[in-house]
């Protein structure tokens, strides 16, 4: 099958880029010809190393730029005789929609950021992939027919991005609590700061590590500086490989206010952390509804502090939840995601086309 993924860029900044890159590489490993059209970015070298041709398509939301993008995308689809186009963001879906209709090839869209109002436009796809059950339910409420909506739960274990990563745990002060992600309000970091400040009074040896970057970094550092526990909170900053921090951490916390299906949870579980996540969006599903990780209400620092204290007061509880993190973890592999996505592609094609591709 000849597959063209289209997304705004291939920079490390966004989780949907990681998911698209993982999927594209996994599809190559399953024997398909894969192309990625975008404005380019950090992952282009990795894509090319995996046999994926990167194609330039601008995504500026201005009429001249969009017209050029339409022309380029149409040329690529014709030149490479593409069988299916897979769009990962709203602008990509809008650009691809008319061309796919004209050329009578399936347009698959993936809803990565359901919390954005523009996510409704992802319903333009012949098939619409939701990255968790909650996202699927939301898209149904937005009017996407059941017949075109498919849920493919995010997973990243075994991805090409993880090849060659360090397996040496970082040495962290124990007991260690870790957050990895973007530093912006949706991730609920202020709740984590307040919760840690509460528990640090009873557990002064505990240390909190913040790995990541974002527009609110200086604001968050100033907020932390005013806390009693400030000396026990470390802002690590951005890193291309957070996995060693996960390997070295005792507890991983994701206190998000909204998170459709965060890849970081499969990585934290793979690393064997005890995991605490807020009970929003796709987080419960990625934690086996509380069997593979602990769930707390979002926007509730007191509840989060109580759960952290519950673990910190008994090291054997941390060890128990580290073991539980491995429950049904095989379901979070990128190979499973790739195979389920290929089934979605086939469901969007005429039967004779599917037969021809299989022979």
Task: Look at the structure and give the mean pLDDT.
Answer: 95
CATH architecture of the largest domain: 3-Layer(aba) Sandwich
Structural class: alpha/beta
> What is the number of domains?
2
Helical amount: 40-55%
- Low-pLDDT stretches are none
Overall 3D form? elongated
| SSE sequence, one letter per element | EHEHEHEHEEHEEHEHEHEHEHEHHHH
First-to-last CA distance? 11 Å
Quote the beta fraction.
15-25%
Q: What would CATH call the class of the largest domain? A: Alpha Beta
Gyration radius, rounded: 21 Å
Number of helices: 14
- Topology, number of strands: 13
Structural notes for this entry:
InterPro entries: Glyco_trans_4-like_N (IPR028098). With about 350 residues, this protein is an alpha/beta fold. The protein folds into 2 domains: about 1-155 and about 335-359, Glycogen Phosphorylase B (Rossmann fold), CATH 3.40.50; about 165-330, 3-Layer(aba) Sandwich (Rossmann fold), CATH 3.40.50.2000. It contains 14 helices and 13 strands. The protein has helices at about 15-30, 45-50, 65-80, 90-105, 135-140, 190-200, 215-225, 245-250, 265-270, 285, 300-310, 315-325, 335-345, 350-359; strands at about 1-5, 35-40, 55, 85, 105-110, 125-130, 150, 175-180, 205-210, 235, 250-255, 275-280, 295. The strands form 2 sheets. The chain has a 7-stranded parallel beta sheet, with helices on both faces. Strands 10-9-8-11-12-13 form a 6-stranded parallel beta sheet, with helices on both faces. It is elongated and about 65 Å long. The termini are close together. The model has no long low-confidence stretch (mean pLDDT about 95).
